[in-house]
Amino acid sequence: MRSNSFYTMLLTALMMVLLVPGCSDNTIKADAAAPEKLISGLKDLDGKRVASLAGSCFQEKAAKAAPGIKITPVYFNDNISSVQALLDGKVDAVFFEEPMVTFWCTSYPNLLYNAGNYADDSYAFAMKKNSPLKGKIDAVIRKLEENGELDLFQKKWCGSVDQNRKLQQWSHKKDYTGAAGTLRFATDPSQEPMAFTLNGAYAGVDLEVINRVAYELNMKLEVIPMKFNSFIQALQEDKADLAGAAMSVTSERQKIVDFTIPYCYGTHTILACKTGKKPAKSMHRINSLQDLDGKQAASMTGSSFAAKTAEVMPEVKIIHRYFASNNDSIQALRDGKVDAVLMDEPMVRFWCAKYPDELYLAGVFANDTYSFAVKRNSPLKAKIDPVIRRLKRSGELDKFQKKWCHPDAAALQLEKWSHKKDYDGSAGTLRYATSAGHEPMAFMVDGRFSGMDIEVVNRIAYELNMKLEIINMNFASLASALQSDQVDMIGGALSITSERQGKMDFVIPYCIGGYTILARRSGN
């Protein structure tokens, strides 16, 4: 079943609005505002510069469809850069898949148009040769095709620019446990509307399909972001089980990897810009780690963000700038001195709520958990773990997080425990070190400590019947203070990393979050 009927109808309606006829006859009438001849097919690209995604097969398909045409190829690592180059007049057209052309024409109807289709195409997920997953995934895709869900997915993501769209959730279903293992899915989240990030979460047609596949196979899903031209190597090196982002099935690729049956059909299409029309401002914004390539990103001195970005996507070269506190990082971002801030998810949500017109969550590039650390073989771990376990079961940890990740966190009060009749602090003193520049996790208000971490530590001290001594220091000094026995426990949105686990013990996590990108809205 071919599923591109939706795009044909939508594009027909759009072209009528733009005074441009359908592309089936490869003819386009001149725009009233632009008397120059518009591009209406491959023949009009002779001698011109045409953009496409690095690692894609667009240029090869065009050469086969029109062998006498001489096109100068220009390659980009993401779709937004390709479209921006078109709008800036740096290229004359962009080679895209039809669903993407539909999306961009819908997003910018007065600037862009479909300039013609030149080859049929189908998109599928790639995997290693002879992978046992193929038969299982094919069965799921066939089911989604037969019941019409694939068409609904494409209509949802390709025909709309609604920023409130979300992936349908399946992990809460009663028949899902994820017990069948983990499905490692490599994708390029710069391929809107097929695979991209929206409001800090992965989104698009490909992600909608793969989420449903994971549910049907009762597998956990791990999304691994990478550049499109790294897919095949990642599969061959067993760094991923499956890869896709509007990936065309070609004979060359089939020699190296296997493909599922197609989940989307379309055509290779030309996207062109209406002559003389330019956007009011740059449309490029940070939505993923790829968008930070060559840019400056702030993070806390001593944090693990630089190491994590290098681990997740080593080909992206980020200029890391370090600050003593998150407040300093945020100010640098607001002043335009850095392009983004790498920060823990709860903190990003706090700052986005505090400055909703200036800042936005630009992507989560790795999962993370936050914990408190104690010295190796400290008896405190066995005492603190049951406390955190009780707070989780009772829902109090969730309430703490909701309470403090709020723009008015500075006005909130910690719950008091020292006045309880069953507390006298006779079990000793808990010396806790933190960095008070971690709003909303740990910060100072009128000379007193406040924040989610402080709320949890206060409760731990009460449950252990210990007095609490809080010591403020630079984040980078926390580990050495613990190892030199200056303190008993350290924290402050402290991520559990293998390097840190080699030097200290961690109690069970009290908060789930992620390695997150905070960016500044254009024009602010």
How does this structure look, described?
The protein is α/β, with parallel strands linked by helices. The chain contains 17 helices and 25 strands. The strands form 6 sheets. Strands 14, 15, 16, 17, 18, 22, 23, 24 and 25 form a 9-stranded mixed β-sheet that branches. Helix 2 (58-65) links the parallel strand 1 (49-53) and strand 2 (72-76). It is elongated and about 85 Å long. Residues 1-35 have low confidence and may be disordered.
| Cα-to-Cα separation, first versus last residue | 47 Å
How many E-type strands? Answer: 25
Mean pLDDT: 84
Largest sheet properties? 9 strands, mixed
- Beta content: 25-35%
Number of DSSP helical runs: 17
Helix/strand/pairing category: alpha/beta
* Helical proportion, percent range: 25-40%
Coarse shape: elongated
Radius of gyration: 26 Å
Q: List unreliable stretches of 5+ residues.
A: 1-35
Observed structural traits:
524 residues, alpha/beta, nine-stranded mixed sheet, five-stranded mixed sheet
Blueprint (SSEs and pairs):
Layout: H1 5-17, E1 49-53, H2 58-65, E2 72-76, H3 79-87, E3 93-97, H4 98-107, E4 112-123, E5 126-127, H5 133-146, H6 149-158, E6 182-187, E7 190-191, E8 195-198, E9 201-203, H7 205-216, E10 220-225, H8 231-236, E11 242-243, H9 251-254, E12 258-259, E13 264-273, E14 296-300, H10 305-312, E15 319-323, H11 326-334, E16 340-344, H12 345-354, E17 359-374, H13 380-394, H14 396-404, E18 429-434, E19 437-438, E20 442-445, E21 448-450, H15 452-463, E22 467-472, H16 478-483, E23 489-495, H17 498-501, E24 505-506, E25 511-520
Parallel strand pairs: 1-2, 1-3, 6-10, 6-11, 14-15, 14-16, 18-22, 18-23
Antiparallel strand pairs: 3-13, 4-13, 5-12, 7-8, 8-9, 16-25, 17-23, 17-24, 17-25, 19-20, 20-21
Helix pairs in contact: 1-4
